[in-house]
Write a structure and sequence with these properties.
Blueprint lengths: L1 H7 L6 H11 L10 H11 L14
């Protein structure tokens, strides 16, 4: 609800915290890698020169 109000009133809102909190809520045994593509995007952004093995990437 706060997100919709912030978007409507053009107020700042921390979407990264919202996504992170939702991901933390899913950290029950067996669901750690529930968002592998999202994690890959974060790693690519944080470490642009990271050496990658073609066989390790998820096909898009």
């Amino acid at each position: 609800m706060c997100m919709i109000i912030a978007l409507t009133l053009n107020l700042p809102y921390n979407f990264s915290k919202l996504i992170f909190e939702q991901m933390k809520g899913n950290l029950v045994p067996g669901t750690f890698m529930q968002y592998p593509r999202f994690l890959q995007m974060l790693l690519d952004d944080l470490i642009p020169n990271l050496v990658k093995d073609e066989s390790d990437l998820l096909p898009l």
